Amino acid sequence: MALIEIRDIHKNFGGHTVFNGMSLEVEEHQVVCLIGPSGCGKSTLLRCINGLEPIDNGEIRIHGERMTGPGVDVNALRRDVGIVFQSFNLFPHMTVLDNVTLAPIQVLKVPRAEAEARAMELLKRIGLEQKATSYPDRLSGGQQQRVAIVRALVMDPMIMLLDEITSALDPELVSEVLAMVRDLAREGMTMLLATHEMGFAREVASKVCFLYGGKVHEEGPPDQIFGDPREERTRSFLRQIIDAGRL
Amino acid sequence: MTASDKMIASDTTGRRWRFGAPPKNPTKLALTAIAVGVILAALSWLTLDNLYLALKALELDGTAATIILVILGIGALYPLRPACRSIARARSSRRALEQNDLVNARIDTAASRDAAWISISLSVALAIVLIVVEFFIANDLAVSRTFFLLPLMWETLPLILEAFITNIYIFLIAEVLVLVVGLIVAIARFTPGEAGRPIRALAVIYTDIFRGLPAIINIYLVGFGISLTGLPILKDCSQETFAIIALTLTNSAYVAEIYRAGIESIHWSQIAGARSLGLTYMQTMRFVIVPQAVRRIIPPMLNSFISLQKDTALVNIIGAMDAFNQAKIIASNHFNLSAVTTVAIIFVVITIPQARLVDRLVERRRLAGGM
Fold first, then answer.
1. Cα dihedral angle (A92, A98, A100, A104), rounded to 10 degrees?
2. Which of A80, A182, B275, B355 is most buried, judging by how many CB atoms fall within 10 Å of its CB?
3. Domains and CATH numbers, chain B
């Protein structure tokens, strides 16, 4: 049984079909990269898995439990599934430390001292412990995104969803964020990431999925998808990426 | 390649610079400034003469008064200074143009026009001041005597200040209540889901009614009505308490709308960020959305407080002894409005620092880039 099972989901967005019978499976400890043209539903898929968006039809199961449709405790789901956004979504009125400890203290009811100790330990690992009392607007984009990752990690999630987490960053700040994701992959975190960093996808992914037409158009190991794509649409997408000098 | 194939309309050989014409002659404008300045100086002296006669009538004339009037008379010539500078620069501009020195001609013309406009605007300001002064000394000082009878103002000041404590008491308590009630109404308006519908409806009805109801009618109804109903506890409240209740009801409706605008201005990605961490709807509101909203709405909130403070003067219609009511009594006893002017001045004086504070906060937020 796969850890995440997406079965034949459908979703419409004001006349626009986002998912048209999409199915996808993610095994435990796998890193699955979603690629595809903008508007193909990469981000929406991640938001649906986190319960931030409803789906119209089909179902998503996590660890065998159905987590779409009525009667699902999305708050409980989100304790197990962390998500990091393209635009960081840090809370600008809180210090870095408060950003990281808010959910443990309020959701998991961890005592403040314990939550702060754990947060400081994680911040130290990424070399941002001296920024703990700073506000997000004093941090570079790369630092903000790494704090956002720590904010999700401090909840000890079983799965991490990463939604184009380097797309809003200046090029020289991308590598520090990717290094962190690489470490997570090495430690065995199950991850599903939407990305435009094809080189990185090729390096860390266990499986790459090309999304097109509301479905997984083609999936396979990274070397096959990037080296020998079978579908014409996948090939033309990758050709455009190469023409833009991004692969 | 034909011209229509090219991205630019024509090449540089086919087109002349439109850019090198000599500057327009500023002399006329400079002369206008001189003329306006001279007329205003003459009018000022006339007004000062009237003022001297008025002071004489008040037996306030003397050396000190004369010296001040003479200084003011010399000051009235001040707009002529930039006007003369304008004339001088206009002349040197003409000279530069005769020597084909286009650059210096332009510089002098610009300086001349600037100086002329400075002079004219000073004259306009002076003219407005003159009108106000004439208004006050016209008809044998009638205006001054009616509104600014200094001995009466001084004599009644302690009474007014004492009564003003009632206004302060009303608005301080009402402001705290408004902050709380307004937030509750705003949050009620965002109650999610099917179950929240009746709560949302109530919040909408409340704001619709109390935003539409004039504060003065509300105060009248609450102040006279509740004591007539004979309801236990409520009927025995003081007029100040009725005033606080009425003002809280009215202003909470406005403040709820301010809160609502603040909450709606927070980007949805903040909600996504908070909910994705497992925070409930209410936790998201409490820790993430409302704190950010409150920071943004401090300036409009202070503005609504200023208007609440002014509204405390309305409570005189239910007979509460506030500063305005006290002043009205003094005014009818002395057949003179100066005590009311005192109240007016007090209201203005307490709001000015708050208005400046609002300006500073708005400016700071603008500099900080919106947050």
1. -130
2. B275
3. 23-145 (no CATH), 152-368 (1.10.3720.10)
